[in-house]
Amino acid sequence: MPHPAQESSVPQHATPNHQPAPAGPAGTPETPVTPVPSAADIRRWRQYLADERAEAAVYRDLAQNRQGEERAILLALAEAEGRHEAHWLGLLGDNAGRTRPASVRSQLLGFLARHFGSVFVLALAQRAEGRSPYAKDPNATEAMAADEQIHEEVVRGLATRGRNRLAGTFRAAVFGANDGLVSNLSLVMGMAASGVASSVVLLSGIAGLLAGAMSMGAGEFISVRSQRELLDATRPTQVTLAAAPKLDLEHNELLLVYLARGMSQEAAQHRVAERMGQLSCDCDPSLSLHPEEPAEEDQHEAVGTAWGAALSSFCFFASGAIIPILPFLFGLTGVAALVVAGALVGLALLGTGGIVGLLSGTSPLTRGLRQLGIGLGAAAVTYVLGLAFGTVVG
């Protein structure tokens, strides 16, 4: 959404309404006088106009990569941004000729939407909608401010769908990359602090990369496969549909099925009556849980596929674990190699933390600094332990 401009607003009105007309000599109102907007107002309105146009284009670009309901929602958001655009055009009037460029954030959103169209764009759009200045701007209507609040929730819902679709693989990728960065940096720092030769540090780093990547890949495969099997095992089957007509009405064990599934006595009895044909309709739909219907695949999508999680974990662990040993691969030794390794890993941790922040709709900087503090803190502790170990052995 448009971002708060630094210029102050002069007129204190919500719409381009006219000032109260002063009374004439005979007490009759004179022709209404439209307040002349200041240069600061015009600059701010032009910025809002540019941002509204850019964000409407973002939603239209995203809609091109969607189908069905999601496409309709995105196009409706673009239409709403068009109404806001019309508001600022009305205020600007003849001053609308020189539209300012969209804000950097809006331009970035547009670039990502045109070239990627991913959940990252929706996550960024969610944050942008939540920072709209319309609630405090006297020239924006209350309806526009309310629109922005609703838009944030709409985009949050769309972004949540995307997060659910990639949650399993993304979790494995982020954990794999961070584990590779932190564990191998700690290994390299600890080995170097113990006083061994740089060649030994390099070999230790390579061994840590290979062993860790294999371990992470195998562990993720087993973890995700086991979780999917548990979900399959706990999903109700269709057996009650076939068995219900043949059950002994005097000893109806179908009731036990629903009680075992966690339904209350009342709900279970109601469901049994439906299954046995004693009720021709859902007299109380709140009691009809329909547990036999196939479970939605959202649970499985959130877990991800076993092979996808394993490959992501392996590759991202390896990509993270290679960074701490890059200085040693290029011939650096001693303190210089450790400083460069720490700097490279720090940048990578900031990046992975920022990505997590974007996807979760929170501050990328805060998440990046958290990742940085945890990672470098673990490496520092290992370095101190390596110094102590080297002193004892020496």
Topology:
Elements: H1 39-64, H2 68-92, H3 104-115, H4 119-130, H5 142-193, H6 198-234, H7 239-243, H8 254-260, H9 265-275, H10 298-303, H11 306-321, H12 326-329, H13 334-360, H14 364-393
Helix pairs in contact: 1-2, 1-3, 2-5, 3-4, 4-5, 4-13, 5-6, 5-11, 5-13, 5-14, 6-11, 8-9, 13-14
First-last Cα distance: 62 Å
Overall 3D geometry? flat
Query: Average pLDDT value?
Result: 75
In what range is the share of β-strand residues? under 5%
| Count of β-strands | 0
Percent helix range: 55-70%
The description of the largest β-sheet is: none
| Overall radius of gyration | 31 Å
What does the model show?
This protein has 394 residues and is mainly α. Helices cover 69% and strands 0% of the residues. The chain contains 14 helices and no strands. It has helices at 39-64, 68-92, 104-115, 119-130, 142-193, 198-234, 239-243, 254-260, 265-275, 298-303, 306-321, 326-329, 334-360, 364-393. Residues 4-34 and 286-303 have low confidence and may be disordered.
